[in-house]
Amino acid sequence: MERINGQIAVVTTHELEGSSTIYGLVIFLSEGFPDEKPRLYLAAPNPLRTFLPLQSINEMEFSHDFHTWEAGPGGIIEICIPPWDASQHLLDLIFEGMLWTKAYEQHLATGHTIHQILRKWRLEHA
What we know:
alpha+beta; 6-stranded antiparallel beta sheet; globular
């Protein structure tokens, strides 16, 4: 853990199998953690391009299609996470971030939205 702009943060990086992109995740913890929901950001790469040329996810205010909120500090993307309660672990959030990045890579390859990709995966594994 470290402090970024005065906030407690967990920083991690990962690379998906078959990909040359290194993804950087940042989880900001409030003083009320674990009772208060942490915030999950994708810090790298930045900006995040879309399937369509010359567009980036960072420019969107928020997006249901991409499961993102408004850009955070430095333009990094906040990833939507499932409902949170104090019984969950930070590893659950890291897994969510890794799942989002896997769906993002599929988006770049197919043009489908992250929402469509995650929905398809959940239906296949239900």
